[in-house]
Amino acid sequence: MKLETENSSTAEIRRLRPGMRALLAVATVLVFLAGMQLFVFSTRTARYFAWTIDPPMTAAFLGASYWAAVALEGSAARRRRWADARIAVPAVFVFTTLTLVATLVHEDKFHFGAEFSGPTRAVTWTWLAVYTIVPVIMIVLVVAQLRAPGRDGPRTADLPRGLLLLAGAQGIVLAGFGIALFLAPGRVGDAWPWSLTELTGRAIGAWLIGLGVAALHATWERDAHRIRPAADAYIVFGGLNGVALLRYGDALDWSSVRAWVFVAFLVSTVAVGLVARRRDVPLVRSSRSSSRRTATGGAR
Questions:
Q1: What pTM was computed for the model?
Q2: DSSP code of 71?
């Protein structure tokens, strides 16, 4: 496979537009803050978060998901080419839209009332504002991004067929279960490893659907460099949820199959992320290798 070099016709490559880069960068800060509230202060959501979450394992799971989004969006924001950043966009759009729906459906569970402190209400109104505005801005920026001149350029780091099959299977399971959990959290929530309310079931369902979209998107991109943001997110997601289990694992019934299926899934996300990350061939490195081969051939 011929690798793309830095001195190739970069004018023909569609670049990541400044507006989309800025949105991804701002979103990185926002999800970091949400992750801090949920993962670090898992037992204090009544004071520090937009709604009260119990058990703490749920808060820690959501916090790990938000910090996985830090890896996804932060990595995408640093990319120069649209093709190398876009894997973050559909997943983020789907998640934010579904989270807005869950918020409106369960508005009575949120800390909007006068009985909550001023800072707590401020956090809650900020939550609503973010999830109302971000999907709209994202639509506008995606339209502008797709209208930008240029092309994607060649793929530079093919993924093994086995990895694509596993990512595709994960995507189908995540999206399928996430949709079922979002639509019927009361019934489908019984299949989750620990107890959920309807609101937390929908919140987790939104994350599962977003992850599923990213996994299926990765099978379409079929390139380790293009899916690097998602690979990083997968590693963070699986690793931090492992930490969450060490902290709040007593929320799970370890005699049940559900608990061990959850652990196996976390291991599989880290494995897929690590393999995909290892397959990534940065363009600069590829350029140097290509140049050395060319120089060696010329010397002969």
A1: 0.88
A2: H
Write the single-letter amino acid at 168: G
**Segment 17-69, tens digit of pLDDT:** 999 999 999 999 999 999 999 999 999 999 999 999 999 999 999 999 999 99
Q: Which helix (H) or strand (E) holds 93?
A: helix 88-105
Are 241 and 176 contacting, i.e. CB atoms less than 8 angstroms apart? no
CA pair distance 44, 290, nearest whole angstrom: 54
Nearest in space to 5 (alpha carbons), one of 296, 287, 299, 290: 287
Phi, then psi, of 198 in degrees rounded to 5: -65, -40
* Nearest alpha-carbon partner for 203 in 71, 41, 38: 38
56 vs 67: CA distance, rounded Å: 16
Stretch (H or E) spanning 150: none
Instruction: Please say whether the beta carbons of 193 and 259 come within 8 A.
Output: yes
For 251-290, give one letter per residue: b (16+ CB within 10 A) or e: bbeeeeeebeebbeebebbbebbebbeebbbebeebbeeb
Cα 28 to Cα 36: distance, rounded to the nearest angstrom: 12
Query: Which tens digits make up the pLDDT trace of 145-204?
Result: 999 888 888 888 888 899 999 999 999 999 999 999 999 999 999 999 999 999 999 999
